[in-house]
Each structure stands twice: as C-alpha cells, then as structure tokens.
Structure prediction request, 435 residues.
Amino acid sequence: MSNKPQNVKGMRDHLPQAMLLRQYIISTLTGVFERYGFEPLSTPVVEHAETLEGKLGEDEKLIYRFEDHGGRRLALRYDQTVPLARVVAQYGGELAPRMPWRRYAIGQSYRGERNQKGRYREFWQADVDIVGSASPLADAEIVAVLTDGLSALGFPEFTTMLNHRQVIGGIARVSGLDEGAAGGVYRAIDKLDKIGPDGVRQALLDFGVSAEAAGRILSLVLLEGSAEGVLKELSGQLATDERALAALDNLRAIITALGELGVPASRYTVAPRLARGLSYYTGLVFEAITPIWPEGAILGGGRYDELIGLFSGKAVPTVGLAFGIDRLHDVMEALNLGPRPATTAHVFVSIFGEAQLAESLQLARELRAAGVNVVTSLEVGNVGKQFKEADRKGVPLVLVLGPDDVARGEVVIKELASGNQRSIARSAVVQELMK
Prediction:
C-alpha cells in the first residue's frame, strides 16, 4: 500500500463545496418530509449480522460483515429499511399510539459492491416510510413525497415508473411458469436496462424458460403507453390470474389517489418491466428516472408487508422509498441544479487596527445574533490582505470599520464582485444586511 494518504475505495471525502450542496439536498428533503408529517428516526450504523441476513435475497453477498473483540458477528447497515423493521418489532408497544407511523431517517449505509459512477460502498440515504397501513392512499402519499422532493430540488423532468410485484408474478404464471420460477423472472427482468431485451430473453432461456414463454414474458413487460392504456392491456392479458388482477386494481386505486394528491399524470407511468431486485417487496414497486441521467434510476422504493413480520412474528403493512443523497448530488452537480454558494458566510468583518478591534467584533456579534453568517478576520491591520482572504473564501461582502467610520458612526460595505462600496449608519447595518 502506498504511504500517500488516501481514503478507502468507494468511500468518498466530501469537501466544503460538495457538502454545501449535500446539506441543501438534505435540508430540502427534510422540509418536504416534515410537511407531510413524517417524524425522524436514527438507528446505529452497526447491526447484528443476523438482523440483516436472510432479508435481501441475492444482494446479501454485499453486506459488510465482521467480528468485534467479543467474537460477536456484526454488520454495517445495508439500508435504512431492515433497521426500521427491527425498530418496529423491538419498540412495538411504544410506537403503537403512532400507528400508522410516518418516519424518515437520513444517514450512511454500506454495500460491498463494485465501485462505479453513481454507486459507492459508503453512501447516504434519506428514507421515508409509512408503517401500519395497507391503504393505497399510503402508497400514493409516498409517491407524492417523491414527486414533491424531486420538484423542490429543481429536477426539470422525471418520471416515476409504477408496477406491482404480483403483476410480474402474474406474467410468469400466465406464461406457464410455476410459482417457484417467478423469482428467476424477477431477477432476469431486473437486469433489462443493463442487458437489454435480448439479454433478458437469454437469461430466461438459461433459467429453463421455454422460448415461447420467454417471448410472451418479454412482450408483456415491454408494454408502454399511458397508465390507463397499459393497465387495460394487462387486464386483458392477465385475465386468468386473480392475484394479478387484484394487483392491477391496486395500481388503479393508487393512481386515482395520486390525482387527488395533485401529482400530474405526466409524472408517472405504469411499467411492467420494473422488478426492483430486493426480495422483501410484496406489492407496489417504483423507480424515478430522468432522461438527463443515463446511469439508471435516481431513486426507488415499494411496499413490503412481510419484512417486519420476520422480526415481530406478525405482518405489518409498510411502504417506503429511499432518496440516494450521493446520486442526487452527482446528478445535480452534473446538471448545475441547486444553489452553488462558495461558503456558508454572508459577510466578512475586517479589523482595521487595534483601536477598532472591539468595535469590529461587537459588530460581528450583533450580526450573528440577527441570523447573519459572519467570518471575522483573525489578523489585525492590512485591510487589503483581508479583502483578498474574503475573496478567496467566496464571501460576497466585506464590512470595514476604519477610524473615520467609527468617528462618524458609519460602516463601509464593499461588494467584492463589483468593487462597489457604500457607507451606511452603524445603527442600520443589521437592517440593511437583512434585506
């Protein structure tokens, strides 16, 4: 290993410029979550390994596992969903009065996957879930939060693809496959965006699906058009499968509620090809995509009514979604979305000389008390050097209290970008800057 300091591959440092955008994303999403009444939850980044094992299907191989000094088998948090299931089972009595419970959680998760653009081994997620409701209104509300969240972040165009796990199961069953083969269909369809229709066809054939059945499966999962048009076509094609028809009715109820929640029809579509790889989904699944980001879905989620039951012994209906902070940051940075402040500071207060030190620090204190972010010089004198420091930091305004200014009861405000400056009454500085 090189002696040069470096971070672990797939785990990034976030320097100030990146952190300012990331904090904007988190604060914006938190505002959306809380406007819908979601409440915060935080869980440890380390869980018992058995808490995560047996919940993730094929993705279980990506769990970071280790033993501590006591020989306990532990694991790093894979996502925010399985810990939520543990919490609901562990604190069921305390949480019961809050049911249905709307919760959000923001923090790091870890996956030992191949490092690539938009996918990292350490990543941040902002999750929202509704626990304890099987109503399609809950599903619709989660999709509405998704829509409001991306809109608040300034995404100009995006579409949420909707599907139901029993639609894919129905497609498999009406194509002649037994229940046990449905898992292979999920896995093959989930790779559609990566390997294309021909690749999916071959994956189905390799799994033992006949050429005729593979052809029918592909023709159905590739259906496109208006939501109502796709639902109508699927209803005809899956008319002999009761579970699939019930799933289509559920999607119709969700779509009706989306309209009542103000989500435009242009923001979603029914996509039978959407599978989502995690094995714990039981109903609605969805992903948001945008043509301006070709690297895959921006975020996704779905309904998982049985996961909590693995811990509590009884099913608890739950639906949720995860915003990937890292992916949102990368997309917004590439598209120049969101604010681009160079620093957190609004003004730089210079210190003209020893005689003006107390007056300058008092001014800074008053501004901070009024909610203005202030950087003060840590050197006394050489105001020109202080101007250069403020400019390097990207602070837009410099305040100067020279001896003549103090004598007149004034402060000089200089705008670094334009070079313009003006003097205002010392008593009016706070009010002027708050404008």
Notes: Residues 347-434 form a domain with the Rossmann fold fold (CATH 3.40.50.800). DSSP finds 17 helices and 16 strands in the chain. The mean pLDDT is 92.
